[in-house]
Amino acid sequence: MFRKGVSPLDFEISQSLKHLPEQFFARLASDVQQYVQKGYDVINLGQGNPDQPTPEHIVQAMQEAVAKPEYHKYSPFGGQPFLKEAICEFYRREYGVHLDPEKEVAILIGAKHGLVELPRALLNPGDMVLVPDPGYPDYWSGIALARARMERMPLTKENEYLPDYDSIPETVKHLARMMFLNYPNNPTGATASPAFFKETVRFASENQICVVHDFAYGAIGFDGIKPPSFLETDGAKEVGIEVYTLSKTYNMAGWRIAFAAGNKRVIGALNLLQDHLHCSVFSAIQEAARVALTGSQQCVKELRQMYEKRRNRFIEAAKDIGWHADAPKGSFFAWLPVPDGYTSESFSREVLDKAHVAFAPGNGFGEHGEGFVRAGLLTTENRMKEAVQRIKDLEIF
After folding, report:
1. Which residues of 374-394 are buried (b: 16+ CB within 10 A; e: fewer)?
2. What are the C-alpha distances in Å from 170 to residues 26, 129, 165, 206?
3. pLDDT along the chain (397 residues), means of 10
4. HEC states along 311-324?
5. 240, 204 in Cβ contact below 8 A?
6. E strands of 147-196, at which residues?
7. SS3 334
């Protein structure tokens, strides 16, 4: 408490915080909340927050684990061995990938935590990072905190939203120390092939670049196609890691549990940094995560089928009003072009103002996202159809 008449000191924030990019999703949520507070029925397709509950068997495992006295203490540094073993079992079962639980796995407090920490664990000020454009904006945050530099890799429809490694200048290839990839992709819904990952390993090996593959939507592939893991590729563990979250696969977004797997030097650096930042995730959550990864995967199959039905209904409804977009191959996002005469921001603002439908403007994911909006398939089929009908009533298309 300051004494009467004494003004609080004007403390300055650090230079690191001053260099942070605007938190795109925080602004988006604030814009939506303003309309909600005014009493409007907003159909929010702008954020990536799963709308389904966590499967009951996972919740029950958590409830039982919470009562265990041994879990009321600090969790072990580096995470519980039983969860690391479960992660290894999951990767063997799903992808045929063998991991060392002690050296090739790191437990994370959510995937975002790890993705933001990795540049600080591996980079020095001035080092260069290759990032997808459009891409997940929080990659930029970790790079800014590490005082590193970004070089954007354009993702275009013509190249199926994959980076063109041949187009990267030689000087950039030599300077780059890290590269972020994300397939199935946020925001475009594109997927990568085993051939692309093979080319990625070659490119990274030749240029001594650490690959960080964000596999957040790994369980969500459509039309009978299972998205491949980067770690399935020969040589992948020599050049990088994969970050996997339980948020999307098991609707555990609020539980904040994820992991990184792959190159032992990178995993070691990440674990070392985390030892200085925190102990680990609450052990009861780790117990529930173990059950999620090793138990019945029927819930994952049903979730994938639900998203595919939503995708089909939404894309068909948009087509019916003259809004043509490619159906996403994976993730729970659709990537739609804005109509002529609009920017990503102006279209998003107009439909929020007049139709009370929220999209994420594409330019928030990078300059090559301009001209598009991202829609989350995260409400019922009827609500998504209603969102399209509201937009139709604006007579934009």
Report:
1. bbbbbbebebbbbbbebbbee
2. 37, 14, 10, 12
3. 64 87 77 89 93 98 98 95 98 98 98 96 97 96 95 97 97 96 98 98 98 98 97 98 98 98 98 93 98 98 98 97 97 97 95 96 96 97 96 93
4. HHHHHHHHHHCCCC
5. yes
6. 149-154, 176-181
7. strand
Strands (E), the chain: 43-44, 105-108, 128-133, 149-154, 176-181, 210-214, 240-245, 258-262, 333-337, 357-358, 360-361, 372-376
Are 318 and 326 spatial neighbours (Cβ–Cβ below 8 Å)?
no
Amino acid occupying residue 265: R
- Nearest CA-CA partner of 374 in 347, 342, 334: 334
Beta-bridge partners for 242: 213, 261
Helices then strands, counting H and E runs in the chain, come out as 15, 12
Cβ partners under 8 Å of residue 201, min gap 6 = 211, 233, 234, 235, 236, 238, 239
Query: Which residues contact residue 289 at a Cβ distance below 8 angstroms, ignoring those fewer than 6 apart?
Result: 83, 86, 246, 252, 255, 257
Give residue 193's pLDDT: 97
With b meaning 16 or more CB within 10 Å and e meaning fewer, what string describes 98-126? ebebeebbbbbbbbbbbbbbbbbbbbeee
Q: Which two tokens stand for residue 318?
A: 């948009």
What does the alpha-carbon distance between residue 160 and residue 156 come to, in Å, rounded to a whole number? 6
Nearby residues of 27 by Cβ (< 8 Å), 6 or more positions away = none
The candidate with the shortest Cα–Cα distance to 315, out of 365, 248, 377, is 377
Residue with tokens 């029925």: 41
3-state secondary structure of 227: coil
Q: What's the pLDDT at 80?
A: 97
What's the token pair of residue 239? 């050049």
